[in-house]
Amino acid sequence: MENEREGPERQERSVRRRRVLIASVAGCAVLGGVLVLLPWERAAGPAAPSPGASAMAAVGRGAPAALPDLAVLIDERVRAVRERPGDAASWAVLGAAYVERGRRLADPAYYPRAEKALRMSLTVRPRRNTAALVGLAALSNARRDFAAARRWGEAALRLEPRRWTTYPLLVEAYTGLGEYKAAERTRDRLTGLRSGPAVRARVRVAAAYRDRGRLEDAAASLADAAAGARAPAERAAHLERAGRLAFERGDPDVALRHFREAVRLDPDQRAAQAGQGRALAALGRSAEALSAYRAAFAGQPRPQYALELGELYESLGEPRAARVQYGLLRERVRGAAAGGADEQVVLGRFEADHGDPKEAVRRLRAEWRRQPATEVADALGWALHRAGEPEEALRFALVATDPERGGGMCDAVSMYHRGMIERELKRYGAARRHLGEALRINPHFSPLQAPAARAAVEALGEPPDVGVPEMARP
């Protein structure tokens, strides 16, 4: 009887198993059909890194980061240090991100926040905290406090001599202090390192080539750096440098192409927008140049952009608009000082040409004592010339155009300044030579000073035709 009862039960269980099997097979067939219909890209390769991770990777390798990604990274690190106040690494990343954001926005209000975060990292981990030391070196460079940048950078290098991200910061610090041999040695050590991406090394090599007058090699190195960049913001930064070099070489068409591509890749690349303003002004497209400068200053209100825009307005016969820009320049210099940043060089240049030359001399003498770089020598020499002290002015102009210090090779402005000082001293041959050199390097170096250079060369005329003196007969 039990066997008779088991027969129908077994048959029923067998039917249920067959139904489950059929359903399972059908389900797999449907799922397989869905997988076939899904685009293969979803399964190909790892997912793209988050914005915060992208910014963190860029900051970690000393590369520019996109502004929206930086904002995400800052929010993430702020939450991290609130939850874990003893996390030295997060404090260091937060400080570095603040430095980069302050630099990209020309907003020195970020610098005190950066300093607080980086010093907190050192407080939490006072020993072997290279990341915090590197961050403080970057912060000091952003503030143009090159002595502090050298101190922090050298401390970081002693801890980790093969950490390649320290080297570019030290090159910048040594250059800002006028220590050109130390800068060159550090640059050579960077290019000799096998660790670290070659992209950043190419950028530094390009700077070395530029300083030595090897402009084609410099342009090639920057092209290689742009091609090897990992992210659009990084590539845009290299293209901006390439555009700057092209403009310095007197080729505004090529410069404009580089600047436009940089802005296409990174709309927040304000230095490239200002570069567009320079190139468009050189090409006679004044309305577009004004628009580009205004966009650059709106997104990155650097005093230098206000000075350039004001001088462009002056060259177009709009002195009232120029005065508005000069007022903004003064305002931005005061804001920089509140954040611990030094903008005395650009303020000195402004005072020399559009304000009080004696005030310019006073400010720039103090800057020279603190940081005797060729940039300061050029500004101080010109201020002395404008203040009626041409003999002393020439001494600084010679420093500014000394090839051993990286001066004069690609700098039409410093050559113009030297030529005008020499003309005042009645050294007409030297004046003619250096004014002509300024126009040869870049005929469009300034909307105000390039026309003045051409007028001075025309006024000096051709050199006198002096025959070879007849040799005395024995």
Beta-strand portion reads under 5%
User: How many individual helices?
Assistant: 24
Average pLDDT taken over every residue: 86
SSE topology string: HHHHHHHHHHHHHHHHHHHHHHHH
The first-level CATH class of the domain at 197-296 is given as Mainly Alpha
Full CATH superfamily name of the domain at 197-296:
Tetratricopeptide repeat domain
The CATH architecture of the domain at 197-296 comes to Alpha Horseshoe
Reported by name, the CATH topology of the domain at 197-296 is Serine Threonine Protein Phosphatase 5, Tetratricopeptide repeat
Look at the helices and sheets and give the structural class: mainly alpha
Global outline? globular
Give the biggest sheet.
none
Low-pLDDT segments, ≥5 res: 1-46
The value of Rg in angstroms is 30 Å
The beta-strand count equals 0
Fraction of residues in helices? Answer: over 70%
Distance between the termini: 154 Å
Note down, in words, how this protein is organized.
With 474 residues, the protein is mostly helical. Among the domains are: 197-296, Tetratricopeptide repeat domain (Serine Threonine Protein Phosphatase 5, Tetratricopeptide repeat, Alpha Horseshoe), CATH 1.25.40; 362-461, Serine Threonine Protein Phosphatase 5, Tetratricopeptide repeat, CATH 1.25.40.10. The chain has helices spanning 2-37, 51-60, 67-83, 88-105, 110-124, 130-142, 146-159, 166-176, 180-192, 198-211, 215-228, 232-248, 252-265, 270-282, 286-299, 303-315, 319-338, 344-354, 357-370, 374-386, 390-400, 412-424, 428-441, 449-460. The termini are far apart. Residues 1-46 have low confidence and may be disordered.
